Amino acid sequence: MESSSNSDQNEGTPTSSVSSPYRRTYSDISGLSHRFDVQSFYNRPSNTNAVVLSGHEEDVSEDAEEPKDDVVNDVHGDGDEEDSDIDSAEDAELEMMRERFAKLLLGEDMSGSGKGVCTAVTVSNSITNLYATVFGQSLRLQPLSTEKKDLWKREMNCFMSICDYIVEVIPRSLGTNVEITETKLRSDILMSLPALRKLDNMLMEILDSFTENEFWYVERGSSSMNSGGGGRDSGTFRKVVVQRKDEKWWLPVPCVPAEGLSEEERKHLRHKRDCASQIHKAALAINDSTLNDMDIPDSYLTTLPKSGKASVGDVIYKQLCTAEKFYPDQLLDILKITSEHEALELADKVEASLVTWRRKTGGLTHSKSSWDMMKDISGDADRGNDKNHILAARARSLLFCLKQRYPELSQTSLDICKIQFNRDVGKAVLESYSRVLEGLAYNVVSWIDDVLYVDRTVRNRDD
Amino acid sequence: MFDGRNSGHSSFSSRGDGMHTPEHELAGHAAPSTRRGKQNRRSDMEVMKERFAKLLLGEDMSGGGTGETSALALSNAITKLADSMFGEQMKLQPMYPETKENWRKEMGWLLSVIDHIVQFVPSRQMGKNGQFTEIMVTKQRDDLLTNIPALRKLDSVLLETLDNFKDQKDFWYVPRDMEDADHNGDWRRDENWWLPVVKVPTDGLSEESRRWLQNQKDSVAQVLKAATAINAHVLSEMHVPENYIDSLPKNGKTSLGDFLYKSITEESFDPDYFVSFLDLSTEHKVLDLKNRIEASMVIWKRKMCQKEKDGKSQWGSTVSLEKRELFEVRAETILVMLKQQFPGIPQSSLEVSKIKNNKDVGQAILESYSRVLESLASKIMSRIEDVLEADRLVQRQLMGEAETRSESEAESEYEETEKVVAAETPNSRKLSDFIGWRLSSDTKKHSSMSDIEFFHKVEQEKEKPMMKSPRALPKKFSYLAKLENMRSPSDRH
To answer: Which PROSITE patterns does the record associate with it (chain A)?
Structure first.
């Protein structure tokens, strides 16, 4: 009974898609030409005990290395570092940073004519693209290569250093009659940026912890998969390759020994999964907070229909209107959402209605931020009887519930619009950094779930 | 939608990166060859981070996105860097090594942005089968390819000129207060109150020194001419901002005022005669005149464009197309003459507006770099002129003291010297400047008409040599001295 329930819950998770930033790397993945080492697989010594298979892990990112990284690699490889090597490396670093900054100033416009996007959007795009470059081909539970790790740290430091100069001027008293002004790091940056750095480091540590795994991977479509299947029947090989669901066609297939993973390994995996899950929640919270703080662009407001009912549709509108008490969970159950695409469509509609109803109450002045909007809803208890207020409050709770139920929902139309029109550099860094960490954390959780799923399948089959 | 947009940018950027190779690395652009400690290297990194971060924020510390565009931020950064490097250069002596190093390093950072401003051009590539295939390769934008190396060269020449004054003994400087104590009176112009006083030996400079100083001055004059030409060209390429156009009156007459309008629209027009009647006694008045003339030119140009576009009949207008074009040419002639006579004049409203509203990063760098080099060249010329003037003063005293010389003979010699100076300098500068300016003219017709005006002016000049020289020289010195303040758009301060 209990095991059956767990099985149902876990089966649901693998069907979720990866985060939106991750999807941009499809074309890169389809180009992969790495093949599993068949000879090595067949020659593996056969014995009844589990053997660590780290030798079979292929670092698919090696081919993607740039010549520049070799310089850094050489320096790290030297046991006895000489001054000239250090100078050379640091000159190279200075040069790379200068190039990065120069391109940021052009706003992705190589003609230099000023048609590029503004700095905030440039920085946001750069962080997103850097993430795709570094993690786009990282599809397994294994440490990141040294070159990729250094690239990530170096470039993120470049982007984050911009935030060091975003300050606010505050008065400070030096005594009874003397007061001066001093600069302090802007409060949202002061709070969130160190947190994101911490989450980043934790994720790196999780990946670093997967060095001596009991599980290994094969590429989908590899001939060894079919051979393995045949081998089982013939009794020659004892390894089992579990066919995975088609939804993740691009991911390599995790494999475990015939008797399953050891209890120790299983415990390790569950622990890392919990950590990654916590990181995902934290990154998501920071991302939501930053997005909520961004102004609603005029171009979004002008596209809204005149009534909230038109956005959300009759069925949902009726539910929001008539119920004495509103239970968003029940409404979501009734709606029977079958895909993430449907969930996203619903989120867009509910959000549009929310903004519309908020405007009608007069609480939403020109480009007011969402936070202020939220505060207005909770603060105006006296006007609780107003219809639009009730509708707005219920729409908000429905949206919140929807996001909880689908944690890896893509960005809504409003989110995308805010990011595109945002001019605040600090918010651009916070939003994009938290978003990519959110995506990476979610991926790690998914990959661990995949391994645990295969393990359960193997052990159930044996029983 | 957002995802697709990012993908597009990503692939485009990647392709550009792969194709682009930095071809224009110059000596001044390279990292210092001497080895330096880890401390200094780290410091370089931190300074560069700060410089670029502030540029990216558009000098808006709150990060809210209300800062300037990258183009304007870069322009301001170059202007401020030059001011901090050269603002204290009040003597003819080499820059401090540390200051020079900082100038080269930080300008290197700012100029590195142009390494990534490219255009795509077709190129033929030999395939493996021996067949040629046409592919697109990146090449630096044409205006940058031409002008950045030139500006770098002018930069080097100016710094070398200052280096040439190392260990010189022919003249020296004393603080102003010491000089005042000695003389109990000030023979210097008030405009230079903050400058140290240059001193020469009691018997004046040697002939060799005098010749050498003149040679240095000529060299810097060439730099000034070239930098001015590049700056004028870049400014002419910039778009006239809409908000400048919106602020204009409806017709040229209103902008010029009745007197100017009537003079320019007379049947016969003599630019020299016209200029001689203008009140050019203060810098403010010259600038105001410049603004009015430029405004009327923009108005007339726009009306001509509109007329050609509308296909409207000429007879329906108050002023015919040909006449308006003639007026514009005359206005331009006066403008050129003003710029020759007052090279140190602050930028006009149109120029300030163009710089502030420009979004082209390449143009921003070209304009600001040429402008700061122009200012530095003018400053060096003024300093050399001060030395030559001190020498002339001593020479005059010596001549006055000579008993064996007759009074008339001395005066005669002085007059001849003045004539030579007056005849040579204005002519050579005007001639080359005028021809250089013509190259940036919009249409051939304008050039043709201007040539006629130009030859007419030369004839006039030959007939009245004495009238011109006494008036021009004092004003020239007066305004050259004002170049102590680094030129930049006035609104920015």
So the answer is: PRONE
Q: CA-to-CA distance for A355 and A432, rounded, in angstroms?
A: 24
Which positions in chain B touch A115 (Cβ < 8 Å)? Answer: 359
pLDDT digits (tens, 9 = 90+) for B64-111: 777 778 898 989 899 989 988 888 677 888 888 878 888 978 899 899
Please state which CATH number belongs to domain A88-184.
1.20.58.2010
* Residue ranges of B 24-53 with Cβ closer than 8 A to chain A: 31, 35-36, 38, 41-42, 44-45, 48-50, 52-53
Interface test with A, best of B12, B24, B56, B76 (most A CBs within 10 A): B56
Which three-class secondary structure string do you get for A218-263? ECCCCHHHHHHHHHHHHCCCCCECCCCCHHHCCCCEEEECCCCCCH
Q: Which of A109, A122, A184 is nearest to B57 (CA)?
A: A122
Give the one of A23, A94, A98 whose C-beta lies nearest to B3's C-beta: A23
CA distances, A223 to each of A99, A234, A457, B177 (Å): 45, 17, 22, 94
**How close A296 gets to chain B, by Cα (Å)?**
15
Gap between the Cα atoms of A166 and A164, Å rounded: 6
Give long-range contacts, CB 8 A cutoff, 24+ apart: B443-447.
B445/B325, B446/B329, B446/B332
| pLDDT band with cut points at 50, 70 and 90 for residue A461 | low
Domains in chain A: boundaries: 88-184, 214-219+246-363+377-458
How far does the CA of residue A250 sit from the closest CA of chain B (Å)?
19
Termini Cα distance of chain A: 16
Q: What distance in Å separates the CA atoms of residue A325 and residue B91, rounded to the nearest whole number?
A: 84
A416 C-beta neighbours (distance < 10 Å), count: 18
Number of CB atoms found within 10 A of residue A417's CB: 21
Are A391 and A322 in contact by the 8 Å Cβ rule? The answer is no
**Taking Cα atoms as reference points, which of B127, B84, B101, B132 lies closest to residue B376?**
B84
Token pair belonging to A18? 């990866």
Residues 145 through 204 of chain A touching chain B, CB cutoff 8 Å: 158, 161-169, 183, 186, 189
Region label for B130, one of left (φ > 0), alpha (ψ between -120 and 50) or beta (otherwise): left
Q: Residues near A397 by Cβ (< 8 Å), separated by ≥ 6?
A: A326, A328
B223/B200 Cα distance (integer angstroms): 26
Report pLDDT digits (tens) over A320-353: 877 767 888 778 887 878 787 788 888 988 888 8
pLDDT in tens, B347-367: 888 889 899 888 888 999 999
Start-to-end CA distance of chain B, whole Å, equals 42
Under CATH, which architecture does the A214-219+246-363+377-458 domain have? Up-down Bundle (1.20)
Strand B197-199 vs strand A216-218: parallel, antiparallel, or unpaired?
Answer: unpaired
pLDDT in tens, A265-308: 988 898 998 999 989 889 989 998 898 888 888 889 888 887 78
pLDDT, mean of residues B257-263? 79
Chosen for mutation from A110, A169, A293, A423 (greatest number of chain B CBs closer than 10 Å) is: A110
Partner B, chain A 402-441, Cβ-Cβ below 8 Å: 410-411, 413, 416, 419-420, 422-427
Looking from the CA of B122 toward its CB, the CA atoms found within 13 Å total 4
Q: CA B256 to CA A142: how far, in whole Å? A: 76
Partnered with residue A216 across adjacent β-strands are A255
Strand intervals (E) in B12-90: none
Output the pLDDT for position B309: 62
Judge whether A88-184 and A214-219+246-363+377-458 match in fold. Answer: yes
Please give, one letter per residue, the 3-state secondary structure of B100-127: HHHHHHHHHHHHHHHHHCEEEEEEEEEC
